[in-house]
Amino acid sequence: MLEDIRTKMMTRIVQKRKLCNGWKQNYGPLVKAKFD
User: Fold this and answer.
1) 3-class SS string, the chain
2) Taking the CA of residue 9 as centre, how many other CA atoms within 13 Å lie in the half-sphere pointing to its CB?
3) What is the pLDDT of residues 1-36, one digit of tens each?
């Protein structure tokens, strides 16, 4: 069970990191929407 949690967390971190690498600024799109 713990191994399943570990693997899911690791894959989620990789997905989030790939998403963040696509940002053009130093902050996310939700923060940018508040400033605009």
Assistant:
1) CHHHHHHHHHHHHHHHHHHHHCCCCCCCHHHHHHHC
2) 6
3) 999 999 999 999 999 999 999 888 888 888 989 988
